[in-house]
Amino acid sequence: xxxxxxxxxLPAADRFSFWWEAVARSVVPVHASSEDAPSFWAEMTSVDxxxxxxxxxxxxxxxxxxxxxxxxxxxxxxxxxSLTLQGRSxxxxxxxxxxxxxxxxxxxxxxxxxxxxxxxxxxxDGIVVQFPREALPLSAGAVRCLTARxxxxxxxxxxxxxxxxxxxxxxxxxxxxxxxxRLSGIVVDLAAAVLAHELESGPETMPSCTGETMLxxxxxxxxxxxxxxxxxxxxxxxxxxxxxxxxxxxxxAEGATVxxxxxxxxxxxxxxxxxxxxxxRQPVRAVAARWGFTxxxxxxxxxxxxxxxxxxxxxxxxxxxxxxxxx
Length: 327
Known about the structure:
Blueprint: E1 2-6, H1 12-26, E2 31-33, E3 42-49, E4 52-59, E5 62-66, H2 68-73, E6 78-86, E7 89-93, E8 96-100, E9 104-109, E10 114-118, E11 124-132, H3 140-146, E12 151-152, H4 156-171, H5 177-201, H6 210-224, H7 233-239, H8 244-252, H9 258-274, H10 284-290, H11 296-307, H12 311-319
Antiparallel strand pairs: 1-3, 2-5, 3-4, 4-11, 5-10, 6-9, 6-11, 7-8, 7-10, 9-12
Helix pairs in contact: 4-5, 7-8, 9-10, 9-11
GO molecular function, one term: DNA-binding transcription factor activity
Keywords: DNA-binding, Transcription, Transcription regulation
Domain HTH araC/xylS-type: 216-317
C-alpha cells in the first residue's frame, strides 16, 4: 500500500533511465528529457488507496511528453490531478497551457497527449493524485473543459484537498486497508468538489461548458438522493424543471443512460460498505436497501455483473485479504 522509489545507490549514468522506467510502472509511460540527466536525482513516495494513488515526487528539472503512440500501447483511462509544492512547472494539453506555482493544481487526462515540464530554478516538489476516470462524477465533456487549467489550492475547497492529500502521504504507513478504502472516497469526493467549483464559478471563461454545468448539477442531485428508492428519471427531471426527454439527452451525449448511471453509483457505494469491517455484521440485503436497492435478488445479479462475484463472496474475499485494492 505504501512504497518509496529513490535513486540512492545507483550509478549516476543509470539514474535517469531507471527513474522513467519506474514512472512508467507506477504512473504512466512518457518520453522524458532533461538538462540534468547526467546528474539526475529524484524520489517518489506513494500510497495506494484502493485504486486511488497519491504520489509525492521530488526531482530535478525535466520535460515529459505522453504521445499518441504511448497511449495506444497502454491506456488505463486515468486522470491525474497535480499539486505543486515547490518550484515552477507547467502542462500543455488540447491547445491549453497552464503555468503553475506553489499551491496551484492542474487536471490532465492520460488518455490524451500532453507535455509537462518543471523549471530548473529549484528542486521540483509536488503531489500527483491518480484515479480512474469513472471514479469522478463528471462527464467526459466536463473533464475536457477542465484539463490544463490552473486550479487554486491556497484557499477554499482547493486548500482542503491539498491538505488532505499531504496528510494522507504523511500518515500512509499507519493506515489499515479499511482506512485506505474510506480515505479513497474522501479524496475522490474532494477532487470532484474542486473541479465542480471551478466549472460552476467560471462560465464566463468556459462558455462552451454550459451544458456540462447542467449535467454536473443533475449528477450532484443524484448523488445526494442515491438512498431514495423512489429516485427516477421523472423525479430528477422534475427537480430541474426539464422534461424527461431533455434529461435523457444530457446523458446520451456521454454514452450512458440515467438509470445506468444511478445503478453504477449505487453499486460502488454498496461495494464500499461491503468492504468496511465496521459493517461486517450488517446483512447484505441491508447494505443494498441503504443505497436504494429494494429487491435483493436484482441487487445480487447487478453486483455480480459489475464485480464478478456475489456480494457475499466479494465481502468474504475482501475481508480475508484475497482481493487486490484496485478491484
